[in-house]
Amino acid sequence: MIALPKSMRVFERGWLSSNNVLFIDDERTALVDSGYSSHAPQTLALVRQALGAGRSLDLIVNTHLHSDHCGGNALLQANFACGTLIPSTEAEAVRAWDEHALTFLATGQHCERFGFTGTIAPGAMLRLGALDWSVLGAPGHDPHSLMLYCAEERLLISADALWENGFGVIFPELEGDSGFAEQRAVLDLIRTLDIRAVIPGHGAPFSDVSKALEVASSRIDFLRTDPARNARNALKVLIVFKLMELRSMPVGDLLSLVEEARAMRAAADILSDDRPALVSKYLDELAGSGVLKLDGDVVKIA
């Protein structure tokens, strides 16, 4: 069991929502990442229960603006008079609510519109849970992503830059932008930090940081050798994510989504000239592994 400061609580969520980290001290309360939109009522309930009577949520901090990390922002803002900090490089897109730039439409996902009261960037310091947290850049999975590091407690909130068994999809590479090199540099940065435990964006907090870095380094080498591997993983992840959200979906609607959602389409185009055949192949593979079930013209989450 990893010992955390009394001012800090981790809500470990399922894969549709990112983990949430709640900070409570005498001066203010803050939540790092808010999960996916369809789980927003659950996020609100978890926060309310943890805060108890007499306390409100004062601040939301987003490590990055993928829908599974910021989808609860709007509901939390509607229920609490809370400020919201986002990565500085996303400010213009959020202000204009450019869903293409914010990747929601690109991934076939949803996020209710929210506002922000401030921005953060690498080099900034945040006071959360009566502790000082350094803001670190973590491009690779997402070019705007950030991590939070507390030197006093030797804790890293890594978002999707480092999980116990890997890291998030390297989305920039799907559309011809650099991402593998940036992810490697983030892993090298993490290696320089004195860390006793990592709170990842998904999965349980873990303490064997060296092992996690070895796994992640091996995986980035594997992906760089053949970029189609990243595309294959991305397309399968996005298909499963959508089915986890909807529970079931006509195959025809899924094929239309792959055509319309930019990141899904880009991944498919790296892999094949025949998108319908490719998606059919992956559905068969996912069904064979027990992740999905095919029922005629409908695909369901297992």
What does this structure look like?
- This protein is of the alpha/beta class.
- It has two domains: 218 residues, Metallo-beta-lactamase, Chain A, CATH 3.60.15; 74 residues, Arc Repressor Mutant, subunit A (Orthogonal Bundle).
- Helix content is 38%, strand content 20%.
- The strands form three sheets. It has a six-stranded mixed beta sheet, covered by helices on one side. A five-stranded mixed beta sheet has the order 7-8-9-10-11, with no helix packed on it. A three-stranded antiparallel beta sheet has the order 12-14-13.
- A hairpin with an 8-residue loop joins strand 8 and strand 9.
List the SSEs and their pairings.
Elements: E1 8-11, E2 20-24, E3 29-32, H1 40-51, E4 59-61, H2 67-70, H3 73-79, E5 83-87, H4 91-96, H5 104-107, E6 118-120, E7 125-128, E8 131-137, E9 146-150, E10 155-159, H6 180-191, E11 197-200, H7 209-225, H8 228-246, E12 248-250, H9 251-260, H10 262-271, H11 275-288, E13 292-295, E14 298-301
Parallel strand pairs: 3-4, 4-5, 5-6, 10-11
Antiparallel strand pairs: 1-2, 2-3, 7-8, 8-9, 9-10, 12-14, 13-14
Number of discrete helical segments: 11
For the biggest sheet, the summary is: 6 strands, mixed
Q: What is the CATH architecture descriptor of the largest domain? A: 4-Layer Sandwich
Going by CATH, the homologous superfamily of the largest domain would be Ribonuclease Z/Hydroxyacylglutathione hydrolase-like
Straight-line N-to-C gap? 31 Å
Indicate how many domains the architecture comprises.
2
Q: What is the chain-wise order of helices and strands? A: EEEHEHHEHHEEEEEHEHHEHHHEE
CATH names the topology of the largest domain as: Metallo-beta-lactamase, Chain A
> What is the typical, i.e. mean, pLDDT?
97
What form results from the Cα inertia axes?
Answer: globular
**Could you tell me the strand content as a percent range?**
15-25%
CATH C-level of the largest domain = Alpha Beta
